[in-house]
Design brief:
By secondary structure, the protein is of the alpha+beta class. The chain has a single domain, classed as Ribonuclease Z/Hydroxyacylglutathione hydrolase-like (Metallo-beta-lactamase, Chain A, 4-Layer Sandwich). The protein is built from 2 helices and 8 strands. It has a 6-stranded mixed sheet. The chain has a two-stranded antiparallel sheet with strand order 1-2.
Length: about 120
């Protein structure tokens, strides 16, 4: 996998080997799948990571969970909806979201936020 820094005409990095929306890395014990996030309103070319055995989804900036014991947000953002739609499209089995900016959050609770149909 090669990573080219952005030039003056682009704002994101380019990962050459994430083709067909997926790139898999394994050490023989653990599998880590990298997926392109399609239709992402935050940044083109953003990736999310799925650990299938552990049922974890690692992402940045698409969902920032509320503080512990705080009520669920009443509306989903466009980024939240994009994340949810990509997980459904890829048929990923996810139990928990591991956001880069926040605490581990149950997928079922995230699905409730997105499933409310309300957006902000």
């Amino acid at each position: 996998m090669s990573l080219y820094p952005p030039d003056e005409f682009q704002e994101t990095f380019v990962l050459e080997q994430v083709q067909n929306d997926k790139y898999t890395i394994s050490d023989g014990t653990r599998i880590m799948d990298l997926h392109l996030v399609q239709g992402n309103p935050h940044a083109a070319g953003m990736l999310m990571v799925h650990l299938p055995k552990e049922r974890l989804l690692i992402e940045a900036d698409l969902f920032n969970p509320p503080a512990a014991n705080a009520p669920l947000p009443p509306t989903a953002s466009a980024a939240n909806t994009s994340l949810y739609n990509n997980v459904q499209r890829l048929r990923l089995d996810v139990a928990q979201i591991v956001p880069i900016h926040g605490r581990v959050f149950p997928w079922a609770d995230f699905a409730k936020i997105v499933g409310s149909g309300k957006t902000n």
